[in-house]
Write a structure and sequence with these properties.
Strand content: 15-25%
Radius of gyration: 18 Å
Shape: globular
Bound molecules: ribulose-5-phosphate
Strand order of the largest sheet: 2-1-3-6-14-15
Number of strands: 15
CATH topology of the largest domain: Rossmann fold
């Protein structure tokens, strides 16, 4: 990795968070690897440490892109079902609130990301300070839908939003290179502009009830620890009660490292 002083403030913060998260890794661990620009930095830091210390790790990737990157850097990537259960997943996020609820899916990988995170004893989020919010929703909420009947699914989403007082908010079919974006599973993404999500649990239930919705980007009660990197190399921690105890000694040693 380049020196932290050569990076943009945002990348320096991502690197600081990545370094702190990778300190939590122990030899023999089974790890989930996230997706996105922060996860790319973390995978590089992890691969460097694994090579330098000869760590034996088994990794499950949350996207084809991450699998390719990790494999190219010498990490052992396997199917999630072959590994079975993971010790820890490290992933980025689009928003993190004070209760460690998240919006994810900016990279369109939230379906696999949620499966991998739920198959982990611990989910650790790494982020730059711009991702920390008081209330989720300023970032669009990605919803993965199957292509069959997606316009009907979109209509049902609008009705669910209306029923929850979220009004007539824009919903955009995500595009890439002038065509509908396709997820690794061959599905589509609808991006919901909601501005503020007052009751994320109610919204999550409403979206999950709609046939055609495969998964939404609300990660509620899944993240145990958020490591917020700072451009100067320090980190601040947001942690759940579950993360206190087993992760604390490592974190206390790693904080402000
Ligand atoms: C991908 C994700 C990413 O973790 C999220 O979009 C953050 O990405 P980045 O680290 O590039 O800001 O959820 O689906």
């Amino acid at each position: 990795m380049p020196d932290i002083s050569d990076l943009s403030p945002s990348d320096a913060a991502k690197l600081a968070a990545s370094r702190a998260a990778v300190k939590l890794v122990r030899d023999g661990m089974k790890l989930g690897l996230g997706t996105g620009s922060t996860a790319v930095i973390m995978v590089r830091v992890l691969a460097e440490r694994a090579a330098a210390e000869g760590l034996t790790l088994r990794c499950a990737a949350t996207s084809k892109a991450t699998a390719e990157l990790a494999t190219s850097l010498g990490l052992r990537v396997e199917n999630l079902d072959d590994i079975g259960w993971l010790d820890m997943t490290i992933d980025g996020a689009d928003e993190v609130d004070p209760d460690l609820n998240l919006i994810k899916g900016g990279g369109g990988a939230h379906l696999r990301e949620k499966i991998v995170a739920r198959a982990s004893d611990r989910m650790v989020v790494i982020a730059d300070p711009g991702k920390v919010v008081e209330t989720l929703g300023a970032y669009h909420l990605p919803v993965e839908v199957i292509p069959f009947g997606w316009k009907v699914t979109e209509r049902l989403i609008r009705e669910a939003l209306d029923a929850q007082g979220l009004g007539k908010r824009p919903i955009l079919l995500r595009q890439r290179d002038g065509r509908p974006f396709q997820t690794d599973e061959g599905n589509l993404i609808l991006d919901l502009s909601l501005e503020a999500i007052a009751d994320p649990h109610r919204l999550a239930r409403g979206l999950s009830d709609i046939p055609g919705v495969v998964e939404h980007g609300l990660f509620l009660g899944i993240c145990d620890l958020a490591i917020i990197g700072q451009p100067d190399g320090n980190v601040t921690l947001l942690r759940s009660e579950a993360a206190e105890g087993d992760l604390d000694p490592v974190l206390d040693a790693g904080e402000n490292a």
